[in-house]
Amino acid sequence: MKRLRQCVDACTVLANQSGQVKGSFCIRASMITHLFTQVLPLPLPPGGGDKGRCMWRDSGMTYDTQSSCLHSLSLIARHFAAVCLSLKATRTTDASRTVTFAAIAAITDALMRVRATDVPSALSLHYAGAAGGPVTPFGFDIGGFADESATMMFADPCLAAARTRVLDYFTAVSARVPPGHVVFQFDRSGDISAGDAALVEQLCVQMGFSRDFQHGKYEQAASYLSGQRSEVLDVYPELGVFRDIVFYLKLVMVPTA
């Protein structure tokens, strides 16, 4: 957790001093890639016999710690998007940015499933499928990451190792998520998915948010997830953080990005 905050501070200083520090963009890109591929452990696949060993899932963190980590990940992802999309695109930089964003997304997904030890978030409980009632977990699809990254040019073996751990994690997650609970399918359609609508609907039912029966749950989910209606994102800002990080990952996998 401390490393995330230190990375945010360093990126902020380098961004503000870009006129005085030569190669500020390259330094920030390299630092963030190093952090997520060599310093921080990536989450272990759920249900893989590693109960109690995953730092993100099994550390027993409080809601404040969970929120702070997600906020730091949001700031780091924004810095990384700004710098990596400003650098000249090559096969090696494309591999680095794609795997790094996939690692950030994996950690964010794991944090979203954490049941805080003090005040568990209703959003996290529903996303993890741990809320009361007959609920099942949600998740997002990393799309063609496996195929696209298979032929990437990795200049550092740590990137190849991180790719493998990301694939292991999301393969295990996908096996637990029903097709109707897949969220944030930006790479398939510009419309709200059934998973987006189901997640927002469950939150509305539990927390009493206004439900739009006139226009339907898809329009309701679109207004809440986009922030057009701010009630849900005001209470659960981590949902907006999660949405944006998944979007960044899918953006850098677009062939023309």
What does this structure look like?
It is built from eleven helices and two strands; from the N terminus they run H-H-H-H-H-E-H-H-E-H-H-H-H. It is an all-alpha fold and 257 residues long. Helix 8 packs across helix 9.
Radius of gyration: 18 Å
Secondary-structure-based class equals mainly alpha
How would you name the oligomeric state of the polypeptide chains in this document? single chain
Unreliable spans: none
Mean pLDDT across every amino acid position: 90
Report strand %. under 5%
N- to C-terminal distance = 30 Å
Dominant shape = globular
Could you spell the SSE succession in H and E letters? HHHHHEHHEHHHH
The major beta sheet can be summarized as:
2 strands, parallel
In short:
The chain has 11 helices and 2 strands; from the N terminus they run H-H-H-H-H-E-H-H-E-H-H-H-H.
Task: Please tag this protein with its features.
single chain; 257 residues; mainly alpha; 11 helices
